[in-house]
C-alpha cells in the first residue's frame, strides 16, 4: 500500500488559519529570502565561525526586518506577530542570524526608540533600519549575567562630559557595530544619593573603546560575538539616553528580544523536524523506510505535538502583545517553553538521523548547539522558572 501524502507541521495544527493575510505574506517573503540568500551558505559560515553581517545588513534592511516592529524613522511599523514570524523564518536557518536581527532591532534600536531624544532617534534610527549602520547592546558583564544589577561599568561626570569605564561580555555584533548602547551606573544621583543605571550611546570609534571578537565557540558560530572594554571613554553630555533610568530600562528591551525568541526557537525546532521527517522517509533500514517503524513515528508524533503547542502559544502571545496586554511573566513562559522544547526536539531528531545527524550536511546538531545558547541568553531557563514561580506564589526566590 502506498503511503498517504504527508502533511506539514503547520498543516497538522492549522496554524495558518490563525494568521492574517499580511502576516502570512511577510512570513513567506522572509522564508523565500532565507532559502535563496542564507540557507545555501549557513553551514559554511557555521564551520568557519563567521557571519557577513555588514554584507547582509542592507539586504535585511531592504526587506524591512531591522526594527520592523517600531514606528517611524524608516522602520516598518508592523505587528508583533509579524515580527515573531519573521524571527521564526530566520532562526529556521540559524539562531545566529535571528540574533543579529534581534540585537539590531529589539535591543539597540528599541533602546534608542524608547528612551532616546528626538535628535538621537533622527541621527541613528534611519541608518540602522536601512542596515547602513549596525548597533549592539551592552548589558552583560564578565561576572554579571543573570544579575545585571551587579554590573561594574561606571559613567562618571567630568564637567559637561561623561567618562565611561568597564567591560561587557557576550555582545552580539560588538566588533562590527557603529554604535553601542551601553548600560552603566552613574554617579549617585542628586535625589536618592545612589547610583542609577542609565543607557549611553557610544560610537565604537571613540578613543578608549575596544571590541575583541570572541572565537572558539561551539555554539552560535554563524554570529559575531565580542567582548567590549571601556577605558576612560569620554562622551558628550548628550550621549545619555534621556528616558532611561533604572534597571527597568534595559530589562524592558530584553523583553522585546525575548518575545522574538518565543517564535524564533520554534523555527529551529521546525527545521529539525522537517529534516528528520524527510530523512526517515528516504532512509531504508531492514528493507523498509525508517519512517515506517512504530518507534520512529512515536518519536516524530511526540516532537510534533510539542512544536504545535509551542506554536499555538507563540501566536497567542503575539496577539496579546499586539493588543498591548502582554506581561513580562507571559513572555517568560513563552521563552522558557520554546527554548526548552526546541532543544529537546533538536536532540531527539539527531537520533533519528543517526551518525548522519552529527554532520553539517544536515541542520539538526547545528541547531542543537545553537539552542544551548538560546536556552541561556536573554534570561536562563532557571531565571524564567523563578519569574513564573514569583508570579504564582508572590515570593521572590532570586535572592
Automatic annotation (TrEMBL):
Oxidoreductase listed as a keyword: yes
UniProt domain Acyl-CoA dehydrogenase/oxidase C-terminal: residue ranges: 245-392
Signal peptide range in chain numbering: none
Domain Acyl-CoA oxidase/dehydrogenase middle per the UniProt entry, residue ranges: 136-233
Listed cofactors: FAD
Protein name: Acyl-CoA dehydrogenase family protein
Keywords (A to Z) from UniProt: FAD, Flavoprotein, Oxidoreductase, Transit peptide
Top-level taxon: Bacteria
Domain Acyl-CoA dehydrogenase/oxidase N-terminal: 21-132
Family statement: Belongs to the acyl-CoA dehydrogenase family.
Taxonomic source organism: Nocardia jiangsuensis
Amino acid at each position: 500500500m502506498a503511503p498517504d501524502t504527508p502533511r506539514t507541521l503547520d498543516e497538522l495544527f492549522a496554524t495558518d488559519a490563525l494568521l492574517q493575510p499580511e502576516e502570512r505574506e511577510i512570513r513567506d517573503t522572509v522564508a523565500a529570502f532565507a532559502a535563496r540568500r542564507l540557507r545555501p551558505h549557513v553551514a559554511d559560515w557555521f564551520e568557519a565561525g563567521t557571519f557577513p553581517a555588514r554584507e547582509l545588513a542592507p539586504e535585511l534592511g531592504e526587506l524591512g526586518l531591522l526594527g520592523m516592529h517600531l514606528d517611524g524613522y524608516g522602520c516598518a511599523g508592523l505587528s508583533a506577530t509579524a515580527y515573531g514570524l519573521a524571527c521564526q523564518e530566520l532562526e529556521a536557518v540559524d539562531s545566529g542570524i535571528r540574533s543579529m536581527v534581534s540585537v539590531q532591532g529589539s535591543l539597540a534600536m528599541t533602546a534608542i526608540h524608547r528612551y532616546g531624544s528626538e535628535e538621537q532617534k533622527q541621527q541613528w534610527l534611519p541608518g540602522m533600519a536601512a542596515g547602513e549602520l549596525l548597533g549592539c547592546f551592552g548589558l552583560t558583564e564578565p561576572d554579571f549575567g543573570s544579575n545585571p544589577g551587579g554590573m561594574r561599568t561606571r559613567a562618571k561626570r567630568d564637567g559637561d562630559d561623561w567618562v565611561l569605564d568597564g567591560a561587557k561580555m557576550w555582545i552580539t555584533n560588538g566588533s562590527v557595530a557603529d554604535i553601542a548602547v551601553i548600560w552603566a551606573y552613574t554617579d549617585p544621583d542628586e535625589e536618592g544619593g545612589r547610583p542609577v543605571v542609565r543607557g549611553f550611546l557610544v560610537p565604537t570609534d571613540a578613543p578608549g573603546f575596544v571590541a575583541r571578537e570572541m572565537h572558539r565557540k561551539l555554539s552560535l558560530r554563524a554570529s559575531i560575538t565580542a567582548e567590549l572594554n571601556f577605558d576612560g571613554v569620554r562622551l558628550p553630555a548628550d550621549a545619555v539616553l534621556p528616558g532611561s533610568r533604572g534597571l527597568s530600562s534595559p530589562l524592558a528591551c530584553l523583553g522585546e528580544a525575548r518575545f522574538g525568541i518565543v517564535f524564533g526557537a520554534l523555527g529551529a525546532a521546525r527545521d529539525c523536524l522537517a529534516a528528520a521527517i524527510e530523512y526517515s522517509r528516504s532512509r531504508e533500514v531492514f528493507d523498509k523506510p525508517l519512517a515506517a517503524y512504530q518507534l520512529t513515528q512515536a518519536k516524530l508524533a511526540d516532537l510534533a505535538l510539542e512544536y504545535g503547542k509551542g506554536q499555538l502559544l507563540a501566536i497567542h502571545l503575539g496577539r496579546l502583545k499586539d493588543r498591548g496586554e502582554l506581561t513580562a511573566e507571559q513572555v517568560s513562559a513563552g521563552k522558557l517553553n520554546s527554548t526548552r522544547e526546541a532543544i529537546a526536539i533538536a536532540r531527539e531528531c539527531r537520533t533519528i538521523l543517526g551518525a548522519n545527524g552529527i554532520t553539517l550536511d544536515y541542520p539538526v546538531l547545528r541547531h542543537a548547539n545553537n539552542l544551548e545558547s538560546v536556552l541561556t541568553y536573554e534570561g536562563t531557563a532557571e531565571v524564567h522558572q523563578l519569574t513564573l514561580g514569583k508570579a504564582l506564589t508572590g515570593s521572590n526566590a532570586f535572592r
